[in-house]
Design a protein that fits this description.
The complex is a heterodimer of chains A (about 70) and B (about 350). By secondary structure, chain A is of the alpha+beta class. Chain A is built from 1 helix and 5 strands, in the order βββββα. In chain A, β1 and β2 form a beta hairpin. Chain B is of the alpha/beta class and about 350 residues long. Classes of the chains: A alpha+beta (about 70), B alpha/beta (about 350). The interface between A and B is large, with 35 and 56 residues. Chain A: This is HypC/HybG/HupF family hydrogenase formation chaperone.
Chain lengths: ~70, ~350
């Protein structure tokens, strides 16, 4: 039930958006999002609501940091 | 999604395991509790316990909302179904939760009672519009799931829909974390903090824990996320300095989702709640505010819950507090299996017993 799934926004409506979650298209409520989302953005979807806009740069940063650890180990 | 593949990358997992090994003080025991059912599932599914050194223990806490729901509430739901001409709308997780006499919502559905699975609280609106019957939504979950329940209530008001009520079993995290942190016989060094609850609450939820000397790392759910969080927890423990580290920045912002918190507290207010295996924790639950009481199934159907009920022999309470591992329960794997669960931790796919049974420790 606490499972959140990342979805790519493919269409924006007034209070909702159509997102693509691993190939399945679903309408999700955007009433809980303070920030604007645009087509192409990723959002975290939970029980039919977008709960957060996802930050791909932050994700890349995490992955980059891990690669940097490799240098520390060697 | 490419991003997910990267967070399951074997090379990155290997790097993290070497880092963990380097940080590991081998004669010390590191005890970290995850307080989210999805963490429990992910740790078991990817076999992360087996990858970690033996002295690093990942303990499953009370993070599965189904598991912590009291037996009295579960039985009250069945009484409600059997004694009233209602439609029950529920998340699928609740279907197999057994009542005191062995029945569950699946069985009741096969007997002809109208029980429907929804994926979102908003699905309830469509059901209600197409029936004259009362639709009762089983509202359950923590800070991630409760704002959507509040969203449903607001929508019901907006569309003037009267034939829906909520059986509210929602709970919040702060008080139960405080409870665990103050348990004498629960030895925990730090918390793997729930990613999606934190997306709503923000980082401040864990500040009391770090002040009490617990390491706290907000974590995502992929193997790389969890292992990196374990490494960050170990760093705090080794230093003896504690702070809230956000290792899920791609989703969790420092202040969380203030709009969702506002929505939640517009519709609900804090109340005492009964946690399975734990008992009453003051201010750890939620109830509908007075101006939304028309949507309260408990009042509409005059439901009384007997909170003293429990399942004899079931040790879910001890599992939820990290006192025992699921495999230490004598019912595990024989009387209690995912196909025929006895206790709630075996029912929900997010329950620790179900995760241990399916994927091993």
């Amino acid at each position: 039930m606490c499972l959140g799934l990342p979805g790519k926004v493919i269409e924006i409506k007034e209070f909702s958006a159509i997102v693509d979650i691993a190939g399945t298209k679903r309408e999700v409520s955007t009433m809980m999002l303070a920030e604007n989302v645009e087509v192409g953005d990723y959002v975290m979807v939970h029980v039919g609501f977008a709960i957060a806009k996802m930050d791909p740069e932050e994700a890349e940063e995490t992955l980059k940091t891990i690669i940097e650890y490799a240098d520390e180990i060697d | 999604m490419k991003l997910i593949d990267s967070f399951r990358d074997k090379e990155k997992v290997d790097i993290l395991l070497k880092q963990i090994d380097k940080l590991n003080i081998k004669d010390k025991e590191y005890r970290f509790m995850e307080v989210c059912g999805t963490h429990t599932m992910s740790i078991s599914r990817f076999g992360l316990r087996t990858l970690l050194p033996e002295n690093i223990l990942l303990i499953s806490g009370p993070g599965c909302p189904v598991c912590v729901t009291s037996q009295g509430e579960i039985d009250a739901i069945f009484d409600l179904v059997k004694n009233n001409d209602v439609i029950i709308a529920t998340y699928g997780d609740l279907l197999k939760v057994p009542g005191s006499n062995g029945e569950n919502l699946y069985i009741l559905r096969s007997m002809g009672f109208d029980i429907r699975v929804v994926f979102s609280p908003l699905d309830v609106i469509e059901i209600a519009k197409n029936t004259d019957k009362e639709v009762v939504f089983l509202s359950i979950g923590f800070e991630t799931t409760t704002p959507p329940s509040a969203g449903l209530v607001k929508q019901l008001v907006k569309e003037n829909i009267k034939n829906v009520s909520l059986f509210v079993m929602n709970k919040t995290m702060p008080k139960v974390l405080d409870f665990i942190a103050n348990q004498e016989n629960v030895m925990v060094d730090g918390f793997l903090c729930p990613g999606h609850v934190s997306a709503i609450t923000g980082e401040r939820l864990y500040e009391p824990l770090v002040r009490s000397g617990f390491a706290c790392v907000i974590s995502g759910f992929e193997p790389v996320d969890v292992l990196m969080s374990v490494k960050l927890l170990m760093e705090q423990v080794n230093k003896g300095e504690f702070w809230v580290e956000n290792n899920y920045g791609r989703v969790v912002k420092r202040n969380g989702n203030e709009l969702a918190m506002k929505l939640m507290y517009e519709v609900f207010e804090d109340s005492d709640a009964y946690w399975r295996g734990i008992g009453v924790i003051e201010g750890s639950g939620l109830m509908l505010r007075a101006n939304y009481k028309d949507f309260d199934a408990m009042e509409k159907f005059n439901i009384e819950v007997d909170y003293s009920k429990s399942l004899p022999g079931c040790r879910c309470g001890d599992v939820l507090l990290g006192r025992i591992k699921p495999t230490d329960c004598s019912l595990f794997g024989n009387r209690c299996t995912p196909e025929d669960p006895y206790g709630p931790c075996m029912v929900s796919s997010e329950g620790s017993c179900a995760a241990y049974y399916k994927y091993g420790g």
